[in-house]
Amino acid sequence: xxxxxxxTVLLLTLVFALVGVAVPRAYAHETQRGWSRVAGIxxxxxxxxxxxxxxxxxxxxxxxxxxxxxxVYRLSLVQDRWQVARDATFDQELFxxxxxxxxxxxxxxxxxxxARRDVGGAWTSERSGSPELRLSAVQLFDDGRAGxxxxxxxxxxxxxxxxxxxxxxxxxxxxxxxxxxxxxxEAIHFAPGVGWAVGSHIxxxxxxxxxxxxxxxxxxxxxxxxxxxxxxxxDAERAWLVGTRLFLCMFCEDQIVLGRxxxxxxxxxxxxxxxxxxxxxxxxxxxxxxxxxxxxAGADDGLAVGWRRYQDERYDxxxxxxxxxxxxxxxSYEALxxxxxxxxxxxxxxxxALVVGYGxxxxxxxxxxxxxxxxxxxxxxxxxxxxxxxxxRYFAPTGHTLRGAFRCYWEANGGLERFGYPLTEEFSTxxxxxxxxxxxxxxxxxxxxxxxxxxxTRYAVLLGLLGRWVxxxxxxxxxxxxxxxxxxxxxxxxxxxxxxIAPEFAGFxxxxxxxxxxxxxxxxPFTEVNAADGLPYLxxxxxxxxxxxxxxxxxxxxxxxxxxxxxxxxxxxxWR
Length: 576
Description:
Number of strands: 40
Largest sheet: 8 strands, mixed
């Protein structure tokens, strides 16, 4: 009961703080130079985890209060500004992410979901479990062929910590020692010869078995629980962890936890308390502190993030985010000066970091002032007047023009029947696939991309990967499951994706650009109701297109058409 009451009070105070309770100037600490808020994440998204695949690319995952619950964002640094692009959505909330490089990513989440992204942007579901299983953390090794995913499962009236091991491409459950009471894993980390998992307890990896470490009791008295939220293994002996002492009374002040492991085992890094580490915001007033995330870039540079809930001089509740920075043996305090609730942190190197959290929070360190988003530019889908220029075609039904290389490609490859009307003007955008800037134009059935690196070849204009975009999160559906290779040679089977092109579509695919234009098949043929007219058609998805088979009237031969993926994308982006 006390825990429920305490959580209710915490929730209310969070709401009060986030909707506009100001941090009094007299008590707010100046924001440290180098921290800057990044725009681009909707305010109803909670980002649970972030990983950096180098100083210029990162991946963040979380949960969405509106729309598909699970979201994946790709973060790309373009001309010193972070560009945010949603890469995929899932039917389950996401809590953990690991990246092998800028393209290959694995995410984990609710209902035991494990999904993998490969080069080219294809997402594949590797595992899903029972609704009671929640995976919170993941880490990969050996070029993605080995790894661990950990969390908890609700069973027998309580939570049990769970460990899944990846070996030879298969995820299997491993042994994790049961402490005999409620247990869960929130974070994991590995160094050569050692692995640590923390949450309700501390576990160490011995062979393929997770054993409880010698108990480090941050809560030695009754009415207190510990929640460990971050861990980093430095080497076979040294490691750090962070968390919070949760005191189970209504007006108790939670306290941060910093633990250290060395040759003598785990110990409290601040056995006399952390009061000296956290300068008082308002002396004598309520001040509760939480540590939520931890990252290290080498042995001597680390960063922990958290937030403080406190009473100002008027006894109103307020929120202030802070960071603890570790440099060469010393922890120091940095007030971030913002009413934000951070979650996890990732470091690319000692001078560059990203923090994610509640309310669409994305905070960067070391990348300069991000500031407000650039001034809003007119939507490229906004109709324009007929310019009356030579060499420019104008389409009155949509109010858009067609010119240059895009016009030549459109006219030479089927025109209106194949691609439909233009729905935008040409404009420049950052690609979510490779982080590069391209000139693009959307049509009813396709996105044209200009590729000057192929100038002078038939590939100077390519179709965008709208097939990958529209099928993100559908890997669990039967048509998107790879099939085995055929018994005999089949020129229309592609082992790269494990799919073959249907006979109804093979001739069209080959005659209209094949692999460079439409990409590999990413589904088997199946019947799907078309959102445009409500009728069922035989369809097959390719990386850049959706093929639709439209039967002729009165038994006449059918026609292959491209699906209205351009229209669907612009509606999803809010441009139509």
